[in-house]
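Onboarding guide, step 5: your first structure request.
Type a short instruction followed by the sequence, for example:

Predict the 3D structure of this protein.
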Amino acid sequence: MTCYQWCRKAGVRNEQAVRMQYTPEQKEEFFTVLRRVESVTLAAAELGLNVNTCHRWASEAGIASKAPGSDRREKFLRLREIGMSRSEAITAVGVNPKTAREWERGIRKSGGRRIYPDGRVVDYKRGVSTKTSSTGTPGVVPVQVAALEKSIDPRYLNVQERELIRDLQATGSSVRAIARTIGRSPSTVSRELARNTDPLLGYLPHGAHRKAATRRRRPKSAKLAIESGLRNYVKDKLLLRWSPEQISHTLVEEFPDRPEMRVSTETIYQALYLQSRGGLKREVQAALHRPDPP
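The system replies with structure tokens like these:
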């Protein structure tokens, strides 16, 4: 025996269990709105009617209506458009609040990927992020997710600041007002907007962050790690037991007009003692221990 049966048996009247009575005018208005929005749930929400009653009306009229839980994304966004609060819309369609926030930001999920409105596609299974152009062609240079989420120097804008720039710009805030809010100089904000504003889509914060990640300095090959005239010169002088300081200073004197023939004392020491930075120590030692020709 259910609680409702207990109430009926005890003669207790449950107000919520009583079917609400609507006027013919309300029913007619429902069908008018239904023809416009093409969704029973949306029509019921717009008019403040009981959704189950509206589905019954539609069924009796021979109108095939989708289940209340289908097309939740579209229904949620439509409910927000007609002025319903986020919490009310979340309750109406039965969706997770985090998912609802992503819907509002235009983010879609598909096959373990998160697709952003600016064309960025983050594939968490593969651990990469790619950029899709306006024609739908994926970018040729994937950016590792770790690179996008890596902490960067505070001098540079992070993704949260870029999102805030987008939100403030959407409210009509000026460049100086945005700069004051995020604690940056107006020139930084102005340069950021000039670099990353699409003529059709406007400022794209995630696209801007991805571009910044690709522009970050990549590890360069050590100066003495590749065969060159500079490397041969340094090796020859080391064989003569010159110190790194002597070599560095003499290079400037002997090659005043050749900037490629420059190397710091520290770089020479690294080439001597770090294999990955040049590995000169082994070559020099081998040459020093090689017996002189007869």
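Each response can be followed by summary notes, for example: The mean pLDDT is 75.
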